[in-house]
Write a structure and sequence with these properties.
By secondary structure, the chain is α/β, with parallel strands linked by helices. It has a single domain, classed as 3-Layer(aba) Sandwich (Undecaprenyl pyrophosphate synthetase). The protein has eight helices and six strands, in the order H-E-H-H-E-H-E-H-E-H-H-E-E-H. The mean pLDDT is 96. The structure holds 3-methylbut-3-enyl trihydrogen diphosphate (IPE) (2 copies) and magnesium ion.
């Protein structure tokens, strides 16, 4: 890191309020590749390197939970060749990163409809979760084959089954009951949502959990996103007045 990066990290740590949970919509890989006359998968490959960079940045800043949107339910509608390339990259990422993530105390989990993944991708996912289980420095949630509406429908289905089985009564279905049946049950809601590549939309990401997150949109394309950009987003977050519907103190 250069001196100025250290200064920025020092400044955000001095302020003290580091968002415990940061969610990121990692967007812009295709445009990054297109700008270089490269095929779209080359952008996804470069995007994978940015994940390593942001894990490092999260560890340095002292973030507890990083939840990254890597592949949406809607992304299954992309051309098969692009989906194949993304799935190969997922397995490559796991093979390449597992040891380092474990050594850095990063506990990886996958959120989404994983049954749609190929058997070999599912095995790779399971092995990374097992290898990194117990990592105490950072929880890294990778959202793959993820859609927020499907997640909410799944929670409703789980609740309905429990009511039907007599383990739950409808009067007890409250916000906590729903939250406990989401993929994110173990973690607090994100404090900060970052979206790269300048798009101002959620694209079906964490609709429930982002109710009171602070939004930060940057024009930087995901493969170009570095820890310095992450620290800048945290610095911006530190200027926000989070009122949660109340009046400021
Ligand atoms: C984000 O980059 C990665 C995935 C959605 C898999 P895109 O592939 O959406 O890149 P753009 O938006 O086309 O530039
Ligand atoms: C959102 O990006 C999904 C991920 C980053 C994985 P998209 O590129 O799929 O979103 P839209 O299509 O621009 O809304
Ligand atoms: Mg996109």
């Amino acid at each position: 890191m250069t001196g100025s990066n250290d200064d920025l990290l020092g400044a955000i740590r001095l302020h003290g309020t580091i968002p415990a949970h940061i969610a990121i919509i990692m967007d812009g890989n295709g445009r990054w590749a297109q700008a270089r006359s490269l095929p779209r998968p080359a952008g996804h490959q470069a995007g994978m390197a940015a994940v390593r960079e942001i894990v490092e940045g999260g560890l340095q800043a002292g973030v507890d939970v990083l939840t990254l949107f890597a592949f949406s339910q809607e992304n299954w509608q992309r051309p098969p060749a692009e989906i194949d390339a993304l799935m190969r990259l997922l397995e490559e990422y796991i093979a390449k990163e597992a040891a380092q993530l474990r050594d850095q105390g990063v506990a990886v989990r996958f959120l989404g409809d994983l049954e749609r993944l190929s058997p070999s991708a599912q095995r790779a996912v399971d092995s990374l979760v097992a290898t990194t289980a117990g990592g105490a420095n950072l929880a890294l949630n990778l959202c793959i084959s993820y859609g927020a509406r499907a997640e909410l429908a799944r929670a409703a289905r789980l609740i309905a089954e429990e009511v039907k089985a007599g383990r739950l009564v409808p009067q007890d279905v409250d916000e906590a009951c729903v939250a406990q049946r989401l993929y994110t049950a173990e973690w607090p809601d994100p404090d900060l949502l970052i979206r790269t590549s300048g798009e101002y939309r959620l694209s079906n990401f964490l609709l429930w959990q982002l109710a009171y997150a602070e939004f930060y949109v940057t024009p930087v394309l995901w493969p170009d996103f570095t820890r310095v950009h992450l620290f800048q987003a945290i610095q911006d977050y530190q200027q926000r007045d989070r009122r949660f519907g109340r009046v400021s103190l």
